[in-house]
Amino acid sequence: MLIIGHETVRGLLAGRERELIGLVADAYRRHDEGLSALPHSVFLRFPDQPRNRIIGLPGFLGGADPVAGLKWIASYPGNIDSGRERASASIILNSLETGYPQAFIEGSLISAQRTAASAALGARLLSGDRTPTGVALIGCGVINREILRFLMADNPKLTAVTVYDSDPARAEAFAAILQGRAPSYAKSDNKVPFLADVAVAGGVGEAVGAHELVSIATTAAAPHMDLAASRPGAVVLHVSLRDLTTATILASHNVVDDPDHVLRERTSPHLAQEETGRRDFIDASIGALLRGTATLRPEPGRPLVYSPFGLGVLDLALARYVHDEAARRGLGTTVDDFLPPSANPVEESR
Asked: N or C, which terminus of the chain has less Cβ within 10 Å?
């Protein structure tokens, strides 16, 4: 068993944004081709802690470099109030020959960066011929920080940012980080380039209308906003999935990663399906757009909303990359006696 900790993962992923976007795109293509097995994620909830949850995402991604395993990720929003990260994650990879666990990997960065890579890919595809020069970030946490970093790596012309958070102090602190005014930021895992053009919006409507690209990454459990103030044809990365009202979803072009996965667990698209009894408001999946088996022909002025549920095969693709790089470089900790002796017939026969 190879155990790969946070610092090793951080070092292996540093500066690899465009490469990770490519890995995520390849995983989406393979998934759309039917080269994956992806059971529905399992949500563990607690009767006395309704805000908290732990999610299990098992999966298999086939093709030239197959991988199987599980991501186990906890979301505890209250952690933020005590200065800790909201989410924590672990990823287990299994041998496809024996089924034995092969690696145990700290997964918080993998989870955040596969989300950011997916968002940057969605922004690229939905923007079409346009090249956004600014983005509005609604929700000032780790995910939107990562999304901004990946957006800037994929599009160097993006130089303006407007931020909004329901906690004004949090938005101000985030702006200070982006402008290089936060000394503690030097110790951060993954830094975004400092920006001069950073604004703090006074309300969510002001943020939505600030730029033609919007990224929503909050901890909202129920719809609380619309896109009435958005610019015509705005591209909206609806990463947290539960922010937009049903009417907003139905009034927009909608791209998802997988309809069967996103239309559950009371996401905004799920609520739209429940209200209408249909799912034809979903225009395409991102895998089909990448493969050219679907096309998106936006109506002028209508928002384009990307709602990625977050497929476990993305985590596995990045975890496989981390595992292979760590093994190649001799990084991580190998635990030889993790499995029972009978798991290794060679050792047993000695």
From this structure: C
